[in-house]
């Protein structure tokens, strides 16, 4: 049993396997660490920083940290970290055009749910009001580039049988945007289009013809905060 | 002690937030016992007749008149509250942000498919009309705002709970279900 690691998160005793990512190990112990870019068993990107925790007094992203004997006491829900996470959520909100009332993903959106969790009433940063073109060329998918938070989930996960990605980044820095391969997306299956929409943590990827399918009150985050399922599991 | 005085206004909004306030149903009778209304579409008082304690504003600022009213509210209200998505982030009207104003006006009055007959290419330019701002601004980017009530509209229960907490001095504990951005 030498590969079993004992550590604590905010004082709660946890166990995990050596090398397991901290965010996954925490979830198995009933501790929710928020994520936007992470997806279990997919190579981590560490791009959104929302899972920032403090290990040995240093800030690290829990989605990229394999646990070992040196983890010690991990800080997760401290007021300091909560404020850092809230600031990240606010930054993502002002950077794109996240007008929730007009978004099909509203109620099922991870970013919005984190806004609720951290009680974001207004972002502390000025709105950027960016304007990127909407890509509706695919018969199955709308790509609303203004809502993309650059998590790379779709790039890493939505691939065809030959391993080619349907999605890619275009441009650099300020001009960076998500784009969709026109030829591949022309023939995307219903299942894959649905999967792309489901893994998107915001409303950037929307499946056509199914908008607002769930009524208010029955959507994913209408009644319970994000992460409740993990916290209730132990 | 005299009752706290409330003023309300809708700027670049749809009056949905005011409708939501009316949605408190019979609690409006309790509200009238708790507070007095001054400038507001609810009692149709057009101009401030005294200093107020609470100002509720829905809608963002899309023209010079909005900005003038907002500044009047800031001057006359001890506490100013942004009510709803439009007040907080510009909302639906802010979908024009990022498009040059000229393009918007051309589309509305000259080139749009629903323009119809406008042979003389007239653009509304009467000096009585307020001037459209370069973009739609959230309230807190123009004046200091004290509190925010998100939602489109904020639910009647949220408005009720927040107002009662404010006028009675109780701490506001909002249930998860009441804070929604849509």
General description of the model:
- The complex is a heterodimer of chains A (234) and B (182).
- Chain A has 234 residues and is an alpha+beta fold.
- Among the domains of chain A are: 4-77, Ubiquitin-like (UB roll) (Roll), CATH 3.10.20; 124-207, Alpha-Beta Plaits (2-Layer Sandwich).
- Chain A has helices at 22-28, 79-95, 110-117, 153-157, 182-186, 190-199, 228-232, and strands at 4-9, 12-17, 52-55, 58-61, 73-75, 134-135, 141-144, 167-170, 177-180, 205-207.
- Chain A has a five-stranded mixed β-sheet with strand order 2-1-5-3-4, with helices on both faces.
- In chain A, a hairpin with a 6-residue loop joins strand 8 and strand 9.
- In chain A, helix 2 (79-95) packs across helix 3.
- Chain A is globular.
- Chain A starts with a strand and ends with a helix.
- Chain B has 182 residues and is of the alpha/beta class.
- In chain B, the strands form two sheets. In chain B, strands 2-1-3-5-7 form a five-stranded parallel β-sheet, sandwiched between helices.
- Chain B is built from six helices and seven strands.
- The mean pLDDT of chain B is 95.
- Chain B has one domain: NADH:ubiquinone oxidoreductase-like, 20kDa subunit (Rossmann fold, 3-Layer(aba) Sandwich).
